[in-house]
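Record format v2
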Amino acid sequence: MNKQDYILSIKDLKTQFKVGKRIVKAVDGVTLDVRRGKTLGLVGESGCGKSVTAHSIMQLLPKAATIVDGEIQFRPKDKPEFNILKYKRTDKKLRSMRGKQISMIFQDPMSSLNPVYRVGDQIVENIRQHENISKKQAIKKTVDMLKMLSIPMAEERIKDYPHQFSGGMKQRVMIAMGLISDPELLIADEPTTALDVTIQAQILDLMRHMQDQLGFTIIIITHNMGIVADMADDIAVMYMGKIMEYGTKEDIFLRPSHPYTKALLKSVPVLGNGGNERLEPIRGNTPDPSEMPEGCSFMPRCDMATEACNKAAPNVDIGGGHMVRCWHSKGGAPHE
Amino acid sequence: MLKYFVSRMLMLIPMILIISFIVFIGLEFAPADPLTAMISPDQMSSMTLEDMEAMRESLGLNAPMLVRYGRWLVNLLKGDMGFSIVTGTPITNIISNLLPSTIKLTFAALLVSTFMGLLFGILSAIKSNSAIDYISSVLGVIGISMPEFFIGILALLAFAIRLRWFPAQGRTDVGLGAFGSIKYLVLPACSLGLVLAAALMRYTRNAMLDVLNKDYVKTARAKGLPEWKVYYKHAFRNSLMPISVLICLRLPMLIGGSVVIEQVFGYAGIGSRLLTAINAGDYQLVLVIVLLLSIVSLLASVFIDLLTALLDPRVRLGGDIGGAK
């Protein structure tokens, strides 16, 4: 594949948190390619670093976090590519990228909108930050976008405050805000976790629908295997700050090769798949991120662990870009 | 909304009545006898007990307490505050002479403290755990723990006596231009404002830090807004709600502080007059001044509600029910 086919290439990203005197390696060498116009699902348990990865792309990390290493190559369509990490958090280049070329929507729509401003004004603010158009035009654009996201009576509702919207409607507003400047990449950090299940489906449908119409790329972060199966073209499975397995949706669901991916799939109930089958939880707990095991981080919980796993596992392509970080994967058997 | 505030204002009336009654009873039990305050000891010694009794009778001091309270209240409503029993001047005159300068002092102190408190509070929140944060937090603790009269005395020693930048005592509105009278205001206003500034600074810092952790601040950054806009438009605007409540709540304390500070700087205002009135047993005057101060406190609390509603659409429009329209 051509380099231009990837809108974003993350290479060996390392993001650390300082907690008191300890250092927590939240993201520990993530390498990831995102195909243009497709949807990448980033899955993993809570605390595996998926959200930190997403925030690193936007450089919207909390103060305690620092990106210590890596590069994030962003390739906008008609502009020269650049390494996001080369710029300071507050650099003009990044500011003109945020909300314009890359947008992000967050987990909790209830707290993501500023309670003291009208919803319309908050979206207009995004437009006018990046485009030199009149307020009237910006309002019209906002109303059009809200209509596209099927918010009823959009002309009236832009004058309302966030607390007058329901959770699902707020998330639609957030999506509208994210898409208003026609971004090339939309990062959705657990966009439906705070919503109830029926609304979840609506929001996901809406995102897919908008993607078909506008052709942007999505990175969707979730711990929900169902959502990934539903939305994603490609999937990256993350564990303890590392990508364990990466491949197309078919690769991951039909040919899971990493023991962690297999275990994860076994622990998820599948509707209509025999009534009384027992789910298999993954044994043990996630290790304390500040005391990561040497070698493969999944080793303490892995049924297949052997002596070789005491050394860090290699990232092996087992065919067609299906990457697995395990000594036991096909071709990844202890070599060297 | 309007209805709410009208009812809120009407509620003040019974509250003011209750306060005036309590103050009246309180002074009733005070050991001061109005007659000893009115008449010099020389004269008193030449009076017989009957004379004094007749005098009490003519002043209406012998009527039952409730009757006297009623009389006083009715006169007050007519705009007649009575006379100072020590100096004999109408209380209306005393108040109208002294109140403006106390208001001036209080607002100058409010201005000083709001400006300093917000400025350093915001700075130390934005640059939390930096040198400026540590320095202002140490100064803040010192400011909070020192009483204003002590700060006042220190300021007096340093800036008026040692450096001679400002006059040490007094207040002049007559014969001096606006700038000339400001000279007399600087030291008392700053010493009075400093304590509030310190409290406000700590509070602003915490309120800002709290808001800066909110998701909508992240949203603002995700839109690509410059940092100053994130801080000003999104963070500060939201922390303004708790901060404005604190400022209004502290307003009565500022007035209370002016009682002491006016004394330190010999600044002729309603506060220092209250002290002399208490010492002289001038209970009529004390009554009016205390009532005045409590009305200001009550108005401040109504003002807080009004301000909160203005600043927060969730309060103004009510109902945090999702989707309800």
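The interface with chain B takes residues 58, 60, 63, 90, 94-100, 103-104, 106, 108, 111-116, 125-126, 129-130, 157, 160-161, 163-167, 169, 174, 177 of chain A (CB under 8 Å).
The first strand of chain A starts at residue 6 and ends at 19.
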